[in-house]
Amino acid sequence: MKVALLAHDRFPIAPPFSGGLESFTWHLARGLKRRGIEVVVFAAPGSDPSLGIEELDVEPLVLSDEARNDVAMPPEAQVRETFSYLQVMRAFARRPDVDVVHNNSLHYLPIVMSPAIPQPLLTTLHTPATPWLEPALRLTPSAHTVAVSDSVAQLWSTVTPARVIRNGVDALEWGPGPGGDTLVWSGRIVPEKAPHIAALIASRAGWKLRIAGPVSDRQYYESTLRPLLGEDIVHVGHLGTRALRTLVGESAACLVTPAWEEPYGLVAAEAMACGTPVLAVARGGLSEVVRAPGGLTSQPGADDVATVAAAARLLPDVVAMDREKVRAYALENCSLTATVDAYVALYQELVRP
């Protein structure tokens, strides 16, 4: 079997990952390769060469001065993105060697063009409904969809009947750590991930906090998070996998503080695989991922102050959790092996005559 994985065209499939979607696609590609399945990937240039996969190339966008000067010119990134996925879908029409196309791109065009290619196209829903994907799926009732959590499936239930396959983490890559005397938060630094809530929780509870991740929203970082940084609350930057694994494993607990309906919460699963217990704000799929003995969830309050107070009260119980039991929970409930097995079974179902 040969599977084509479509990712976002803005970021390569390579560590350090820009976000959970890139991490998911990279790990899925590696898991499929381990099972002897050939993989073709479309993403931004520069995917990890160690994966040993074929990368689909597209022609770069070329616009004349006249086109750029059009008063109705949309953002160039939007034009480039649409042009890229159009080329990719046309390429699949000429690729009989590809058996299944697995769409993780968050772009509408692969969905609406799926009837024009000979391969079945499977779309994983990594987010709540968006104004691009929702109408695309309504126009394509035959689309095959998977949701990363029951929460995401429910959010999409009026649009598409998505099957649930939860994300997973590599238990060998995210091995057990010794713990330590600081807290950790990791992820993209954006308002919806709300690392400032983690900073407020740590300050209220009297703990040091290390924040790891790329600054994806500079305005949010400067206006909301940076004023909270200091000797005890530190942004350590965008770390590679090895450095991040060490930081998480040497932390007393991991804080996960979404301000939106978190689709899954891969950082929580990674932390628990290290034996690091998780204190999470129960939004979206996180309440499915973070359960005792892996961690504890705090219901979001009416405002940030209430959320911080409730989480700070739970923190001593989280830090006291048995790290061996936390890791055992992650191995049983957040396994990458189970995730890959479920996708392979679904691919086989889709290509079966």
TrEMBL record:
Superkingdom to which the source organism belongs: Bacteria
Pfam families listed in its UniProt record: Glyco_transf_4, Glycos_transf_1
Enzyme class name: transferase
GO molecular function, one term: alpha-1,4-glucan glucosyltransferase (UDP-glucose donor) activity
Signal peptide: none
Keywords: Glycosyltransferase, Transferase
SUPFAM superfamilies: UDP-Glycosyltransferase/glycogen phosphorylase
EC number(s) on file: 2.4.1.11
Glycosyl transferase family domain span: 182-317
Domain Glycosyltransferase subfamily 4-like N-terminal: 19-170
Entries under PANTHER family matching the protein: BLL5217 PROTEIN, GLYCOSYLTRANSFERASE
Protein's name in the database: Glycogen synthase
High-level lineage: Bacteria, Bacillati, Actinomycetota, Actinomycetes, Micrococcales
